[in-house]
Amino acid sequence: MTLTGHSLIAGEPVVGEGKTTNGFNPATNEALEPAYSLLTEEQLKTATAAAKDAFPSFSSLDPETHAAFLEAIADNIEAIGDELITRAGQETGLPAARLQGERARTTGQLRLFAAVVRQGDFRGVRIDPAIPDRTPLPRADIRQRQIPLGPVAVFGASNFPLAFSTAGGDTASALAAGCPVVFKAHNAHPGTSELVGHAVTKAVKDLGLHPGVFSLVYGPGASIGQALVADSAIKAVGFTGSQAAGIALMKTAAARPEPIPVYAEMSSLNPVFVFEGALKGDVDALAAAYVTAVTGSSGQLCTSPGLLFAPEGEAGDKLAAAVGRAVATCAGQTMLTAGIAASWNTGTEALRSAEGVSLIGKGTPGATENAPAPAIFGTGVEHFTSNHVLHEEIFGAASLVIRYRSTEDLLQAAARIEGQLTASLHLTGEDYPTAAPLIPVLEQKVGRIIVNGWPTGVEVGHAMVHGGPFPATSDSRTTSVGTLAINRFLRPVAYQNLPQELLPEPLQDTNPWHLNRRINGNVVPAEEKAEASA
Amino acid sequence: MTLTGHSLIAGEPVVGEGKTTNGFNPATNEALEPAYSLLTEEQLKTATAAAKDAFPSFSSLDPETHAAFLEAIADNIEAIGDELITRAGQETGLPAARLQGERARTTGQLRLFAAVVRQGDFRGVRIDPAIPDRTPLPRADIRQRQIPLGPVAVFGASNFPLAFSTAGGDTASALAAGCPVVFKAHNAHPGTSELVGHAVTKAVKDLGLHPGVFSLVYGPGASIGQALVADSAIKAVGFTGSQAAGIALMKTAAARPEPIPVYAEMSSLNPVFVFEGALKGDVDALAAAYVTAVTGSSGQLCTSPGLLFAPEGEAGDKLAAAVGRAVATCAGQTMLTAGIAASWNTGTEALRSAEGVSLIGKGTPGATENAPAPAIFGTGVEHFTSNHVLHEEIFGAASLVIRYRSTEDLLQAAARIEGQLTASLHLTGEDYPTAAPLIPVLEQKVGRIIVNGWPTGVEVGHAMVHGGPFPATSDSRTTSVGTLAINRFLRPVAYQNLPQELLPEPLQDTNPWHLNRRINGNVVPAEEKAEASA
Asked: What is the interface pTM, i.e. ipTM, of the complex?
């Protein structure tokens, strides 16, 4: 496909009247063609107005068309073929195998949400039938369902050009909820965004939906993002990126005449706690797995482990030594952008020069530009609890091994950390009594607890939580991965004493959408129903 | 019971080191004894620290003890007997019958939440079992549950001294979620708050819970409220009151180092739409029912109808005349406070002097202090759409009848109104085609749609939504009445590959809490389970 270099508003290419921007190949620092024209804030309003216009029809779509739409997007993304992987690789430096995996995840989650739309439990149907003879007062028939919030602004993430971008998790869950999406492309991968943008637009057209259901907009980073969040047509925001940018969007959303929810997934150190029992096994394998989790995708995952707590003493020393050996064999991989590589350098320099921090091991720089040598540092728990620099996320292939003396040390360190996406525990049966008290502390700090595994590789399923207390996310009550993500874009409405003729279909007695319904508080299965798994 | 006049922090009376305040009998403007000592912000920290200390044990309580606790509160409130009704009547001017109904609602919702706790669906258990042989990568066992957010600050409402106060809906749902509560009493009914506070404290003691599970605090209105919301131990806020106060709390919560959710239920005009068909029936009865809804509890309900849209023409004229006759028979009832009565006067004066507004009818002043004559005004739809003064809530027994010419008028007016708790439609079968297009518009504006009924008398059930878009509430995704209210105080956590020994009980294979569980996305009922209705 010939890339146009323009926004795609309600199905039509729109030439931005602002400046232009190019993608860059971070492996070479060379600009990629075409240049992308950037919208003005005035032009942006066309997209949000179209989304508002599309809302009434899209929000009341029948489940089958709605699900077919999500599946068509997935099909269309696959139909792009290798061009998508090639372009994404050029724009991000990510290897083809990783991007192929990410594409499968992206289409997989679109199909999963199609299944969710067919199954329909997210519609939250509750019926409290009338009790006309109740005393002292009769009870009216009251029915409840969840309806979509309205048009959603989604921001592309630099580190997942497919799965957290144009048709990624935020877009998929918002569309599944029935919300039109205005998608702000990340300027680091404009071509990848355009390719997927056409895939979505084609699905909108083929299914005969209102064209305003989806727009892809390019604009000057922060300013157009703020304008988008401030736009009165927008009713919720999905964002994955830095803490500074996320907090700026939260402030804009809270200051609107009508405040709206912002779902920002921002930063996480993803601490790993290694217990004594786990060090009686294959310490080299444990060290290698840790280093793989730290260095995979050049460490640019939301869930890359930035901290590993290992006990003091001989076994811990062995682990640290094995980590040093493992990281020494790693070559640097191209980072997403020159700016991200520069931030990584600043961050590791600050960590290296912090009191009590030493280098455990270091790899070699990669052969390309922006491919710094992965580095793992070490320190004692007393430095971690007293120096805030050691709590700063370094986005990229760096991590800090913290040596602890006692369970009390671990409990204190866990209580000290800010909100995180994940915490991982490596242990064996003998460690259960030691580890057990840590779990309720970690529940207050993280969205996901993992045993004998690594936080990277976020499964897209029904039970996943990719979220956590602030500042990991802006809203700990949600997840941005997995089927529960749809709940972010819904709100309940009750209908009291409505005649069948005026009730929305999902609430009618005949249950034409075959929904499971909560009647008097208890779930009553539909006689015929779809299954939730894709 | 002899009232102490002091706060009740973690089970112990605490003498406030600030000034004192008295309740006032609004029927006589006389001060009520005792004086209540107000806490300083420093003293307040004792309560939030105790709530934080109580959280680990309270949040992991077994369902039976947890439910018994809620039931014990209900029993203890009933055990206070007539003293509660008498004191609440003195402090609020509300009639005994209304307060008896409110007490029944308060104890009823505590028992309903006890049933919810026993049934356990709010725990949101989701299990995606491991798939070890999945390719290309195996799937780990992942389980999810909802856990409580942490200590919750609840603010008492002036207009519901029982059902939205000390042990009201916010407190009941927060406690049911497993969140300790620090309750800030409304200074308009301190004695009522203390009576119920002792009832809660006794239940805490009798069940052997950590005393920090509940504290009742008195303080200087706005300042201590802000301090409470800003306190780092507090993780969510429940509030019912004015828009100005609610928005101030929202701002404080958003500006914290760790922002927290505020559930503020603020203001609502509760528009009523009358269609032609409804005017072919008993117009006098319709008018009388409207006037009852407007004047009941002196119009001081969140759901009192402030607007009624009636068609122009003869039938509408008849309705307006009947409304005028009905309101003329009404005597004013004592309002909650002298300040609220003064605001009502200011509000009705502004409405009366607005262009195009005339008086339809007026009652007589009550025999007591602060009992102004109910008043109903009239205007044309063109004035409503052009003058913002006509969109201001007047808290008290006043309402505005708006005459419309066409369905188009109604659609435009509905699109113009701000977020509301409710909208009501009065119609017959012949009006269905006219009314149908209004429903999707109203869904975007309100939390509850009612046909041939009135918004007052909010049923406490599973399907109720007492919420709505801003500024009706701070968060349209929630309800403050009904069992769904518990969701406000929960957040999901995922557990990946945890051994049974380390999994929280609700997630263990043996399902010791007999919970319905969502397995691979589909609900699987527990073999033995509790029912959700009390």
From this structure: 0.97
